[in-house]
Design goal:
Helix content is 29%, strand content 16%. It is of the alpha/beta class and 224 residues long. This is Alcohol dehydrogenase-like protein.
Length: 224
């Protein structure tokens, strides 16, 4: 949707393809491909640009680096839906955010697919997870998924609650809103990071919070 609206970090190029997620059965391989054979069940890893490839179609072409065999116990639907959320969360939290044991990780939009994946990854690293959601309606679910604290952005004083829970480290998520980022940024200590969505609309609030902007290939990050 963001790509269609021109709000994504990748500028649309026409004619364009769409879609990052997919799973299916290999029907043909390139001359130099040795890792896969016709008949293999595979899923797509989101490691390419819309301007080059896409998964909207009954038959699609994919580069070999963006294809992986998936476990037999996964359905095609499960295999197609797993990679985007976990790769996005892993890239933001581990590769860029360098989340470590004892860090406090604040996840905006924590009830989303990326948010749920991020909770699991952050907890595997030994981090303390503060999950943000618009209301407390799904708070119990987030706690069951592993979140340590839940803050409702429409019901709680976000800045006050964040300050109460921690003042050590904030590493955000790929589903934060401008308001969430603006509230979280003042609580972020020097040399810590805020990772936000792939949205140009989030640049201004981060900059107003006094952060320095750099662009990763998954998200925008602000280091204070």
């Amino acid at each position: 949707m963001m790509y269609r609206e021109g709000a994504y970090v990748i500028e649309p190029v026409f004619p364009t393809t769409m879609g990052y997620e997919g799973a299916g059965v290999v029907t043909a391989v390139g001359t130099n491909v040795r890792e896969f054979s016709v008949g293999d069940k595979v899923s797509v890893i989101p490691s390419f640009m819309f301007t080059e490839y896409g998964t909207y179609g009954e038959i699609v072409n994919m580069p070999v680096h963006a294809v992986v065999k998936h476990p037999e116990n996964l359905t095609m639907e499960q295999a197609a839906a797993s990679w985007m959320m976990f790769v996005t969360a892993y890239g933001g939290l581990i590769e860029f955010g360098k989340v470590q044991k004892g860090d406090f990780v604040v996840l905006g939009g924590a009830t989303s697919s990326v948010g749920i994946a991020a909770i699991q990854i952050a907890k595997m690293q030994g981090a303390n997870v503060i999950a943000l959601s618009r209301t407390h309606a799904k708070g119990d679910v987030l706690l069951q998924k592993g979140a340590d604290f839940v803050i409702a952005t429409k019901e709680d004083d976000v800045t006050c609650r964040l300050s109460h829970h921690t003042s050590e480290s904030i590493t955000g998520t790929s589903t934060s809103t401008p308001t969430t980022v603006a509230n979280a940024a003042p609580e972020c200590k020097p040399n810590k990071e805020i990772a936000t969505a792939n949205s140009k609309k989030l640049l201004v609030p981060i900059k107003h919070a006094g952060a320095e902007i750099s662009c990763g290939n998954l998200s925008y990050f602000a280091k204070t």
